[in-house]
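I hope you will forgive my troubling you with a question about protein structure. Could you please explain, in whatever detail you think fit, how the structure tokens follow from the sequence? Thank you for your consideration; the sequence and its tokens are set out here.
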Amino acid sequence: MSWGWMAMDPFRQLILTISVTSFLTFQWLFHKVSPWMSTRISPSFLGLSDKQRVEWNSRTVSTFHALLVGIFCLYILLFDDVVNEDPVWGDPTLVKTNVAITTGYLISDLLLIFYYWKAIGDKFFVVHHLAALYAYYYVLGEGMLPYFANFRLLAEFSTPCVNQRWFFEVLGYPKSSRPNMANGVAMAVVFFMVRIAVMPVYYCRMYAVYGTEPFYLVPWGGRVAWIGSSICLDIMNIMWMHKIGRGCYKVLRTAHRGKGGAPPQENGKTD
């Protein structure tokens, strides 16, 4: 095992180290940082059930991960000219770093899902995480498709609003309260921008490289992970956007009819 480690080139060792460090960091954030921080930001955290605390900590870590890799992803899209010019085989150094962080998070989250299955167990998330890890193998192991792998991480920008919706719900905020409504509108707008509006850009780049020599250098498994997963994810994104849009419309219509609600008191609980 040690000989295999020694045989790896320095950058592969660095990527493996980043993935392991990411895994350990997100475990630490879940078990230590989130409970400590949550009790100080929202005293209502102490009044939650054990299952709710588990999900609270899980979503807190999820939000941190989403902001971290989302910002890194945006930086790469704007300033990494090599990857943008060659989306299939461009130098994946920065993308690999970002994907390594996400890989550590996904493995950490999978472990937590299985360990706390009664609280946060979800077959969909297990399938999602495993599919993502399969796709990331081709980025980390083979260095291919860096542009497309990084582009998909844009979707993480919608995660904080989705998690915040759950936080408001568990704290007892009415759906028609101003904080909940503001978050709902933000969630719909951001979800549309990073998951729906960007589809033409993504598939135009995919079409531009389809059938070219760089495309045929990608092995069959890599093409399945790339094209197949992209189509499946975007079908789900369209379905989710429809559901989010309808929910947002209903809340706004209710508020317009004068059925507004005030947020709860500091303890964040309702009887």
Remarks:
- The two ends are 57 Å apart (CA to CA).
- The CA atoms of residues 59 and 163 lie 6 Å apart.
